[in-house]
Amino acid sequence: MKYLTPTTLLLQATTALATPLLASRQRQDPAVFTGVSSFRGQGCEGATVTYDSLSQVATITYPNYGVVIPSGPREESCSTTLQVRFPVGQCTTGTASGTATGTVNVPVGVTAFFSARDYAIQPTIGTITDVSPNGQWAGPRSEEYVLQDSIGYTLTPPNAQNNLVNFTVFGDLSLQPQNGPVGSLTNRGFVFDIRTQVPC
Ligand SMILES: *[C@@H]1O[C@H](CO)[C@@H](O)[C@H](O)[C@H]1NC(C)=O
Q: Where does the record locate the signal sequence feature (predicted)?
């Protein structure tokens, strides 16, 4: 075994103590998902959510979110609100990205719509670049679809009371004309990813 002088031992102990302190002072706490605030609408029925190990990627599965003509349901909606905890009193800038996947099967003469208003973010703190994750497919189309969008934001939660932020994505599926020939549109999943974060 190597002989260590008392000075070396003291230095090692000091370094061991100082390193984590320094690291925690420099590290910015990341924003993380804390859970689903709400699922609203018939299309959300049976929806489940899972998170990655860092709680920064939420994967939502919708087993019953779909429309079909002529038998119905002809219109379905689902609003999903995910709650994110931002670090208190620190500025966070980032890009949250959403990916919706599903299937579209429409013959000529039928158009499928995924209508979503801009994401709603509450409370409305900081600056947000709004996007609208809409989709539209004119038949004949028969495919798996992927809709991607992203929201840029800069948030500085001013105090401990409002570091929780709700991100809501609205959605509504429909087929036009509703009395048209056989067609269907589903939204099977939605992935919301908040990994891209930079302290500001
Ligand atoms: C987030 O949504 C939940 C459930 O709807 C609500 O109770 C809470 O007040 C919302 N938080 C904010 C900051 O709007």
A: 1-18
